[in-house]
Amino acid sequence: MGSTLRRDGFDATELSHDAFLGGRLVIAQPKVGYRAGVDPVLLAASVPARAGERVLDLGCGGGVAGLCLAARVPGLILTGLEVQPAYGDLARRNAKANDIALEVVTGDLSNMPDALRQQQFDHVIANPPYFDRRQSTAARDAGRERAMGEDLSLGDWISAAARRVAQKGSVTFIQRAERLPDLMAAAAMHLGSLEVLPLIPRRGRAARLVLLRGRKGGRAGFCLHDGWLLHEGPEHVQDGEKYTDLTDQVLRNAAALPFPV
């Protein structure tokens, strides 16, 4: 049986300290539980934010997406919403350790805290749980399960994002490609100018992840972009990752991952 959902913070012995963006950021993460990989980095790289704009990260976890975005675009006003108090506390600690201003609100997006209901943001981003637990097995660790296993529907996530984004502002999600029909159906009810960027692991392979962006009040037609290639070569042939030069620039040098490609 998995552990209970912890509310206390992580102590130093439970954490690793991992470099992101080529060492521009050092992020504390639990050794056991939800650990961020490249997904929130790619999400952050795709956001069309400018200095002085307000950004909300729904389900911010340890703060990786927001902090990566801030490393690329200084001067943002960053807010994160996180339902798990221990991870919210970790996001605050990570922001302080990296000298980045990030307000983290503890709460559930299905019952948005008053502090957020009164605000509008230029951009809302999210890396929601990937797995529909009607068709998959729950993780043993409760913190990881809350981050990876769907509790609220993707429709709930999109609806919450659309309520908080300002008119003409952007909403950007990263999600598994197999969930794209659900994501598109929800987004079409609340947003316009929808765009999808498939993230292709290797040439000739099917996309495993997608980035979806919409704008509140947008009127442009739907756009399916050419896929973004993550790795060189047709297969993994050596230890370590072999990213394309463009992807390497995103992951190690805080470059933007633009729409359109």
TrEMBL record:
GO molecular function terms listed in the Swiss-Prot or TrEMBL record: N-methyltransferase activity; nucleic acid binding; S-adenosylmethionine-dependent methyltransferase activity
Ranges for domain Methyltransferase small: 42-136
The EC number(s) this enzyme carries: 2.1.1.223
Question: Which keywords annotate this record?
Answer: Methyltransferase, S-adenosyl-L-methionine, Transferase
Q: What class of enzyme is it?
A: transferase
Q: Which domain of life is it from?
A: Bacteria
What processes in GO biological process is this protein linked to?
methylation
> Which Pfam families does this entry report, sorted A to Z?
MTS (PF05175)
InterPro entries for this protein: DNA_methylase_N6_adenine_CS, SAM-dependent_MTases_sf, Small_mtfrase_dom, tRNA_Adenine-N(6)_MTase
Q: Which CDD domains match?
A: AdoMet_MTases
- Database matches in PANTHER family: TRNA1(VAL) (ADENINE(37)-N6)-METHYLTRANSFERASE
- What protein name is recorded for this chain? tRNA1(Val) (Adenine(37)-N6)-methyltransferase
Per UniProt, what is the name of the gene that codes for the protein in this document?
Answer: yfiC
